[in-house]
Amino acid sequence: MMLFVLMVTGLFISNSYAQTAYITNRADSTISVINVATDAVITTIRIGTDFPRGVSVSPDGSKVYVTNYYSNTVSVINTSTNNIDNTIYVGLEPNGICVTPDGNNIYVAQGNNYVNVIDAASNAVYAGIPKGTDGVAISPNGSKVYVSVGLENKVIRINTSTNLLMDSVNVKKYPQGLAVTPDGSKLYVANRNSDTVCVINTATNTISAYVPVGSKPQGIAISPDGSKVYVTNFNGASVSVINTSSNTVSTTIPVGNGPWGISVTPDGTKVYVVNFYSNSVSVINAATNTVSTTIPVHGHPCSFGNFISSHAQSTIGIATNGIELGTINIYPNPTTSQTTISFSSEQTNTTIKVMDVTGRMVNDKWLKVNGKSATLDMSGYAKGVYFVHITDANKNVVNKKIVVE
Hints:
The chain is an all-beta fold and 405 residues long.
Protein backbone atom coordinates (compact mmCIF):
# COMPACT_ATOMS: atom_id res chain seq x y z
CA MET A 1 0.00 0.00 0.00
CA MET A 2 1.30 3.48 -0.92
CA LEU A 3 0.61 6.62 1.12
CA PHE A 4 0.47 10.13 -0.34
CA VAL A 5 0.98 12.77 2.37
CA LEU A 6 0.10 16.47 2.22
CA MET A 7 1.01 18.65 5.21
CA VAL A 8 -1.57 21.25 6.27
CA THR A 9 -0.79 23.04 9.58
CA GLY A 10 -0.12 19.80 11.44
CA LEU A 11 -2.78 17.73 9.63
CA PHE A 12 -2.24 15.43 6.70
CA ILE A 13 -4.46 13.99 3.98
CA SER A 14 -3.39 10.39 3.47
CA ASN A 15 -4.45 8.62 0.27
CA SER A 16 -4.22 4.84 0.37
CA TYR A 17 -4.27 3.33 -3.09
CA ALA A 18 -7.08 0.78 -3.38
CA GLN A 19 -7.40 -1.47 -6.43
CA THR A 20 -10.79 -2.02 -8.01
CA ALA A 21 -11.93 -3.90 -11.10
CA TYR A 22 -14.64 -2.41 -13.33
CA ILE A 23 -16.72 -5.09 -15.06
CA THR A 24 -19.07 -4.01 -17.85
CA ASN A 25 -22.30 -6.05 -17.98
CA ARG A 26 -24.04 -6.16 -21.36
CA ALA A 27 -27.39 -7.66 -20.29
CA ASP A 28 -28.53 -4.81 -18.01
CA SER A 29 -26.02 -2.05 -18.97
CA THR A 30 -24.36 -1.92 -15.56
CA ILE A 31 -20.81 -1.97 -14.22
CA SER A 32 -19.90 -4.22 -11.30
CA VAL A 33 -17.13 -2.73 -9.17
CA ILE A 34 -14.93 -5.34 -7.44
CA ASN A 35 -12.57 -4.69 -4.54
CA VAL A 36 -9.41 -6.51 -5.62
CA ALA A 37 -8.24 -7.02 -2.02
CA THR A 38 -11.40 -8.86 -0.96
CA ASP A 39 -12.65 -10.09 -4.36
CA ALA A 40 -16.14 -8.85 -3.50
CA VAL A 41 -18.51 -6.63 -5.52
CA ILE A 42 -18.73 -3.35 -3.60
CA THR A 43 -21.16 -1.42 -5.82
CA THR A 44 -22.97 -1.46 -9.15
CA ILE A 45 -23.00 1.51 -11.52
CA ARG A 46 -25.97 1.87 -13.87
CA ILE A 47 -25.13 3.18 -17.32
CA GLY A 48 -28.58 2.96 -18.97
CA THR A 49 -29.42 0.80 -21.99
CA ASP A 50 -26.14 1.30 -23.75
CA PHE A 51 -24.25 -2.06 -23.81
CA PRO A 52 -21.08 -0.94 -21.95
CA ARG A 53 -18.17 -2.79 -23.52
CA GLY A 54 -14.61 -1.46 -23.63
CA VAL A 55 -12.75 -0.21 -20.54
CA SER A 56 -9.57 1.80 -19.94
CA VAL A 57 -8.19 3.28 -16.72
CA SER A 58 -6.31 6.58 -16.51
CA PRO A 59 -2.64 6.20 -15.42
CA ASP A 60 -3.32 7.85 -12.04
CA GLY A 61 -6.34 5.61 -11.45
CA SER A 62 -8.72 8.53 -10.93
CA LYS A 63 -10.92 7.87 -13.97
CA VAL A 64 -12.33 4.91 -15.83
CA TYR A 65 -13.46 5.33 -19.43
CA VAL A 66 -16.18 2.98 -20.72
CA THR A 67 -17.42 2.65 -24.31
CA ASN A 68 -21.20 2.33 -24.73
CA TYR A 69 -21.75 0.42 -27.95
CA TYR A 70 -25.42 1.23 -28.55
CA SER A 71 -25.52 4.87 -27.48
CA ASN A 72 -22.32 5.85 -29.35
CA THR A 73 -20.83 7.38 -26.20
CA VAL A 74 -18.01 7.07 -23.68
CA SER A 75 -18.82 7.31 -19.95
CA VAL A 76 -16.25 8.88 -17.61
CA ILE A 77 -16.35 7.35 -14.11
CA ASN A 78 -14.81 9.07 -11.09
CA THR A 79 -13.17 6.24 -9.13
CA SER A 80 -13.31 8.15 -5.84
CA THR A 81 -17.12 8.30 -5.94
CA ASN A 82 -17.96 5.67 -8.59
CA ASN A 83 -20.24 8.24 -10.16
CA ILE A 84 -20.42 9.04 -13.87
CA ASP A 85 -18.91 12.52 -14.22
CA ASN A 86 -19.30 12.92 -17.98
CA THR A 87 -20.74 11.27 -21.07
CA ILE A 88 -18.94 11.97 -24.36
CA TYR A 89 -20.49 11.43 -27.79
CA VAL A 90 -17.93 9.77 -30.07
CA GLY A 91 -19.77 8.23 -33.02
CA LEU A 92 -21.00 4.85 -34.22
CA GLU A 93 -20.47 1.71 -32.11
CA PRO A 94 -17.46 2.53 -29.89
CA ASN A 95 -15.59 -0.63 -28.95
CA GLY A 96 -11.96 -0.76 -27.80
CA ILE A 97 -10.50 2.14 -25.82
CA CYS A 98 -7.13 3.12 -24.35
CA VAL A 99 -5.73 6.11 -22.42
CA THR A 100 -2.26 7.45 -23.25
CA PRO A 101 0.43 7.02 -20.56
CA ASP A 102 0.36 10.74 -19.73
CA GLY A 103 -3.43 10.61 -19.27
CA ASN A 104 -4.04 13.44 -21.74
CA ASN A 105 -5.73 11.60 -24.61
CA ILE A 106 -8.11 8.68 -25.08
CA TYR A 107 -8.24 6.65 -28.31
CA VAL A 108 -11.54 4.95 -29.21
CA ALA A 109 -11.98 2.36 -31.98
CA GLN A 110 -15.44 2.34 -33.55
CA GLY A 111 -17.70 0.12 -35.64
CA ASN A 112 -17.72 2.63 -38.50
CA ASN A 113 -13.99 1.87 -39.04
CA TYR A 114 -12.84 5.08 -37.40
CA VAL A 115 -10.66 5.96 -34.41
CA ASN A 116 -11.66 9.08 -32.48
CA VAL A 117 -9.34 10.92 -30.08
CA ILE A 118 -10.71 12.50 -26.89
CA ASP A 119 -8.98 15.31 -25.04
CA ALA A 120 -9.11 14.25 -21.37
CA ALA A 121 -9.09 17.83 -20.06
CA SER A 122 -12.14 18.97 -22.03
CA ASN A 123 -13.85 15.57 -22.49
CA ALA A 124 -14.31 16.39 -26.17
CA VAL A 125 -13.34 14.65 -29.42
CA TYR A 126 -10.72 16.72 -31.24
CA ALA A 127 -9.32 14.35 -33.90
CA GLY A 128 -10.23 11.30 -35.93
CA ILE A 129 -8.33 8.70 -37.94
CA PRO A 130 -9.90 6.50 -40.66
CA LYS A 131 -9.50 2.75 -39.96
CA GLY A 132 -9.73 0.81 -36.72
CA THR A 133 -12.70 -1.07 -35.27
CA ASP A 134 -11.72 -3.34 -32.40
CA GLY A 135 -8.89 -3.48 -29.85
CA VAL A 136 -6.63 -0.54 -28.94
CA ALA A 137 -3.17 -0.53 -27.35
CA ILE A 138 -0.60 2.24 -26.84
CA SER A 139 3.19 2.00 -26.65
CA PRO A 140 4.64 2.64 -23.17
CA ASN A 141 6.20 5.92 -24.31
CA GLY A 142 2.87 7.07 -25.76
CA SER A 143 4.22 7.69 -29.27
CA LYS A 144 2.22 5.04 -31.13
CA VAL A 145 -1.31 3.63 -31.01
CA TYR A 146 -2.10 0.16 -32.36
CA VAL A 147 -5.65 -0.70 -33.42
CA SER A 148 -7.00 -4.01 -34.73
CA VAL A 149 -9.28 -4.03 -37.78
CA GLY A 150 -11.11 -7.35 -37.47
CA LEU A 151 -12.86 -7.57 -40.83
CA GLU A 152 -9.72 -6.57 -42.73
CA ASN A 153 -7.34 -8.90 -40.83
CA LYS A 154 -4.84 -6.15 -40.04
CA VAL A 155 -3.41 -3.98 -37.29
CA ILE A 156 -2.87 -0.29 -37.97
CA ARG A 157 -0.29 2.00 -36.37
CA ILE A 158 -0.99 5.67 -35.54
CA ASN A 159 1.50 8.43 -34.75
CA THR A 160 0.15 10.19 -31.64
CA SER A 161 2.06 13.41 -32.38
CA THR A 162 0.20 13.93 -35.66
CA ASN A 163 -2.77 11.56 -35.21
CA LEU A 164 -2.06 10.26 -38.69
CA LEU A 165 -2.00 6.67 -39.89
CA MET A 166 1.60 5.46 -40.18
CA ASP A 167 1.22 1.99 -41.66
CA SER A 168 -0.39 -1.40 -41.08
CA VAL A 169 0.52 -5.06 -40.88
CA ASN A 170 -1.57 -7.99 -42.12
CA VAL A 171 -2.28 -10.64 -39.50
CA LYS A 172 -4.47 -13.74 -39.38
CA LYS A 173 -8.26 -13.81 -39.26
CA TYR A 174 -10.26 -11.31 -37.22
CA PRO A 175 -7.75 -9.70 -34.82
CA GLN A 176 -9.29 -8.50 -31.56
CA GLY A 177 -7.42 -7.82 -28.31
CA LEU A 178 -3.84 -6.56 -28.39
CA ALA A 179 -1.21 -5.54 -25.85
CA VAL A 180 2.32 -4.09 -25.88
CA THR A 181 5.11 -5.45 -23.66
CA PRO A 182 6.34 -3.07 -20.91
CA ASP A 183 9.59 -2.43 -22.79
CA GLY A 184 7.63 -1.58 -25.95
CA SER A 185 9.48 -4.11 -28.13
CA LYS A 186 6.62 -6.52 -28.90
CA LEU A 187 2.92 -6.29 -29.72
CA TYR A 188 0.77 -9.37 -29.08
CA VAL A 189 -2.46 -9.72 -31.09
CA ALA A 190 -5.28 -12.24 -30.53
CA ASN A 191 -6.56 -13.55 -33.89
CA ARG A 192 -10.04 -14.75 -33.02
CA ASN A 193 -10.88 -16.74 -36.14
CA SER A 194 -7.52 -18.46 -36.58
CA ASP A 195 -6.93 -19.57 -32.97
CA THR A 196 -3.54 -17.88 -32.85
CA VAL A 197 -1.71 -14.97 -31.28
CA CYS A 198 0.71 -13.13 -33.52
CA VAL A 199 3.84 -11.42 -32.20
CA ILE A 200 4.81 -8.17 -33.92
CA ASN A 201 8.28 -6.66 -33.65
CA THR A 202 7.42 -3.01 -33.02
CA ALA A 203 10.79 -1.72 -34.27
CA THR A 204 10.20 -3.14 -37.75
CA ASN A 205 6.40 -3.55 -37.60
CA THR A 206 6.75 -7.10 -38.89
CA ILE A 207 5.47 -10.41 -37.54
CA SER A 208 8.12 -12.44 -35.73
CA ALA A 209 5.98 -15.40 -34.60
CA TYR A 210 2.53 -16.99 -34.49
CA VAL A 211 1.54 -18.82 -31.29
CA PRO A 212 -1.27 -21.43 -31.44
CA VAL A 213 -3.70 -20.99 -28.53
CA GLY A 214 -7.26 -22.12 -27.71
CA SER A 215 -10.53 -21.65 -29.56
CA LYS A 216 -11.55 -18.08 -30.48
CA PRO A 217 -8.92 -15.99 -28.62
CA GLN A 218 -10.42 -12.63 -27.69
CA GLY A 219 -8.84 -10.64 -24.82
CA ILE A 220 -5.16 -10.28 -24.02
CA ALA A 221 -3.06 -8.90 -21.16
CA ILE A 222 0.63 -8.89 -20.25
CA SER A 223 2.20 -9.33 -16.81
CA PRO A 224 3.91 -6.20 -15.39
CA ASP A 225 7.36 -7.78 -15.77
CA GLY A 226 6.64 -8.68 -19.40
CA SER A 227 7.35 -12.39 -18.94
CA LYS A 228 3.81 -13.70 -19.55
CA VAL A 229 0.95 -13.02 -21.94
CA TYR A 230 -2.54 -14.10 -20.86
CA VAL A 231 -5.08 -14.82 -23.62
CA THR A 232 -8.79 -15.56 -23.17
CA ASN A 233 -10.14 -18.35 -25.39
CA PHE A 234 -13.81 -17.43 -25.83
CA ASN A 235 -15.00 -20.80 -27.13
CA GLY A 236 -12.48 -22.81 -25.13
CA ALA A 237 -13.48 -21.65 -21.62
CA SER A 238 -9.80 -21.20 -20.86
CA VAL A 239 -6.84 -18.85 -20.65
CA SER A 240 -3.60 -19.60 -22.51
CA VAL A 241 -0.40 -18.42 -20.80
CA ILE A 242 2.39 -17.55 -23.24
CA ASN A 243 6.04 -17.40 -22.20
CA THR A 244 7.37 -14.28 -23.94
CA SER A 245 10.96 -15.59 -24.02
CA SER A 246 10.04 -18.60 -26.16
CA ASN A 247 6.66 -17.45 -27.52
CA THR A 248 5.13 -20.79 -26.60
CA VAL A 249 2.14 -21.67 -24.42
CA SER A 250 3.40 -22.75 -21.01
CA THR A 251 0.01 -23.71 -19.57
CA THR A 252 -3.74 -23.49 -20.16
CA ILE A 253 -6.06 -22.57 -17.28
CA PRO A 254 -9.75 -23.58 -17.24
CA VAL A 255 -12.09 -20.67 -16.41
CA GLY A 256 -15.81 -19.91 -16.94
CA ASN A 257 -17.71 -20.04 -20.21
CA GLY A 258 -17.09 -17.35 -22.81
CA PRO A 259 -14.02 -15.62 -21.31
CA TRP A 260 -13.71 -12.16 -22.90
CA GLY A 261 -11.85 -9.38 -21.08
CA ILE A 262 -8.74 -9.96 -19.00
CA SER A 263 -6.53 -7.77 -16.77
CA VAL A 264 -3.52 -8.30 -14.50
CA THR A 265 -3.12 -6.51 -11.16
CA PRO A 266 -0.26 -3.96 -11.06
CA ASP A 267 1.80 -6.25 -8.81
CA GLY A 268 1.27 -9.20 -11.17
CA THR A 269 -0.10 -11.55 -8.50
CA LYS A 270 -3.67 -11.87 -9.81
CA VAL A 271 -5.30 -12.18 -13.21
CA TYR A 272 -8.99 -11.29 -13.60
CA VAL A 273 -10.95 -13.02 -16.36
CA VAL A 274 -14.45 -11.89 -17.37
CA ASN A 275 -16.73 -14.81 -18.34
CA PHE A 276 -19.48 -13.65 -20.73
CA TYR A 277 -21.72 -16.73 -20.57
CA SER A 278 -21.07 -17.69 -16.95
CA ASN A 279 -21.89 -14.17 -15.66
CA SER A 280 -18.78 -14.26 -13.50
CA VAL A 281 -15.17 -13.19 -13.03
CA SER A 282 -12.50 -15.85 -12.49
CA VAL A 283 -9.54 -14.76 -10.35
CA ILE A 284 -6.31 -16.56 -11.24
CA ASN A 285 -3.42 -16.89 -8.82
CA ALA A 286 -0.51 -15.99 -11.12
CA ALA A 287 1.99 -17.98 -9.03
CA THR A 288 0.09 -21.26 -9.28
CA ASN A 289 -1.86 -20.68 -12.53
CA THR A 290 -5.06 -21.82 -10.85
CA VAL A 291 -8.40 -20.11 -10.23
CA SER A 292 -8.51 -19.03 -6.60
CA THR A 293 -12.07 -17.69 -6.58
CA THR A 294 -15.02 -16.95 -8.85
CA ILE A 295 -17.04 -13.74 -8.40
CA PRO A 296 -20.68 -13.57 -9.60
CA VAL A 297 -21.56 -10.40 -11.53
CA HIS A 298 -24.48 -9.28 -13.73
CA GLY A 299 -25.46 -10.74 -17.10
CA HIS A 300 -23.07 -11.09 -20.04
CA PRO A 301 -20.00 -9.25 -18.70
CA CYS A 302 -17.23 -8.37 -21.18
CA SER A 303 -14.79 -5.60 -20.02
CA PHE A 304 -12.69 -5.43 -23.19
CA GLY A 305 -9.45 -3.68 -22.16
CA ASN A 306 -7.56 -2.74 -18.98
CA PHE A 307 -10.23 -2.64 -16.26
CA ILE A 308 -8.25 -2.61 -12.99
CA SER A 309 -7.83 0.78 -11.33
CA SER A 310 -5.41 1.74 -8.55
CA HIS A 311 -6.88 4.91 -7.08
CA ALA A 312 -6.69 7.08 -3.99
CA GLN A 313 -8.95 6.86 -0.96
CA SER A 314 -8.52 9.78 1.43
CA THR A 315 -8.31 9.86 5.23
CA ILE A 316 -7.25 12.66 7.63
CA GLY A 317 -4.86 12.36 10.56
CA ILE A 318 -2.01 13.97 12.52
CA ALA A 319 1.40 14.18 10.86
CA THR A 320 4.60 14.04 12.87
CA ASN A 321 7.23 14.51 10.18
CA GLY A 322 5.65 14.25 6.73
CA ILE A 323 7.16 15.15 3.39
CA GLU A 324 5.81 18.46 2.18
CA LEU A 325 4.61 18.20 -1.43
CA GLY A 326 5.40 21.77 -2.36
CA THR A 327 9.01 21.48 -1.23
CA ILE A 328 10.13 18.73 -3.62
CA ASN A 329 11.36 19.79 -7.05
CA ILE A 330 12.48 17.65 -9.99
CA TYR A 331 14.53 19.31 -12.73
CA PRO A 332 14.92 19.12 -15.61
CA ASN A 333 11.54 17.51 -16.23
CA PRO A 334 11.11 16.28 -18.96
CA THR A 335 14.64 14.90 -19.07
CA THR A 336 16.85 12.92 -21.43
CA SER A 337 19.61 11.98 -18.98
CA GLN A 338 20.36 13.09 -15.44
CA THR A 339 17.77 14.85 -13.32
CA THR A 340 17.98 16.36 -9.84
CA ILE A 341 15.49 15.89 -6.98
CA SER A 342 15.79 18.71 -4.46
CA PHE A 343 14.25 19.09 -0.99
CA SER A 344 13.74 22.32 0.96
CA SER A 345 14.65 20.57 4.21
CA GLU A 346 17.44 18.19 5.21
CA GLN A 347 16.60 14.52 4.59
CA THR A 348 17.83 11.54 6.60
CA ASN A 349 17.46 8.02 5.20
CA THR A 350 14.89 9.11 2.63
CA THR A 351 14.70 6.59 -0.22
CA ILE A 352 13.77 6.99 -3.89
CA LYS A 353 12.70 4.45 -6.47
CA VAL A 354 11.42 4.82 -10.03
CA MET A 355 8.25 3.04 -11.20
CA ASP A 356 6.61 2.71 -14.60
CA VAL A 357 2.91 3.42 -15.20
CA THR A 358 1.96 -0.12 -14.12
CA GLY A 359 3.56 0.40 -10.68
CA ARG A 360 6.56 -1.83 -11.43
CA MET A 361 9.93 -0.73 -9.99
CA VAL A 362 12.31 -0.13 -12.90
CA ASN A 363 15.52 1.08 -11.27
CA ASP A 364 17.89 -1.59 -9.98
CA LYS A 365 17.92 -0.47 -6.36
CA TRP A 366 16.60 2.17 -3.97
CA LEU A 367 18.47 5.48 -3.99
CA LYS A 368 19.16 6.75 -0.46
CA VAL A 369 19.13 10.49 0.29
CA ASN A 370 20.96 12.12 3.20
CA GLY A 371 20.95 15.83 2.55
CA LYS A 372 18.89 18.18 0.41
CA SER A 373 19.27 16.72 -3.09
CA ALA A 374 19.80 13.56 -5.11
CA THR A 375 20.63 12.83 -8.75
CA LEU A 376 18.85 10.24 -10.88
CA ASP A 377 20.40 8.94 -14.08
CA MET A 378 17.50 8.40 -16.52
CA SER A 379 19.65 7.97 -19.65
CA GLY A 380 19.03 4.23 -19.89
CA TYR A 381 15.24 4.48 -19.67
CA ALA A 382 12.86 4.15 -22.62
CA LYS A 383 10.95 7.30 -23.54
CA GLY A 384 7.72 7.64 -21.58
CA VAL A 385 6.09 8.54 -18.28
CA TYR A 386 7.49 7.32 -14.93
CA PHE A 387 6.79 8.00 -11.25
CA VAL A 388 9.43 8.86 -8.66
CA HIS A 389 8.38 7.17 -5.41
CA ILE A 390 9.89 9.02 -2.40
CA THR A 391 9.71 7.58 1.14
CA ASP A 392 11.03 9.39 4.21
CA ALA A 393 12.33 7.82 7.43
CA ASN A 394 8.82 7.93 8.94
CA LYS A 395 7.39 5.95 5.98
CA ASN A 396 5.55 8.96 4.55
CA VAL A 397 5.40 8.74 0.77
CA VAL A 398 5.14 11.14 -2.17
CA ASN A 399 4.88 10.18 -5.86
CA LYS A 400 6.05 12.64 -8.52
CA LYS A 401 5.66 12.24 -12.27
CA ILE A 402 8.74 12.43 -14.51
CA VAL A 403 8.88 12.27 -18.30
CA VAL A 404 11.81 10.84 -20.28
CA GLU A 405 12.18 12.21 -23.81
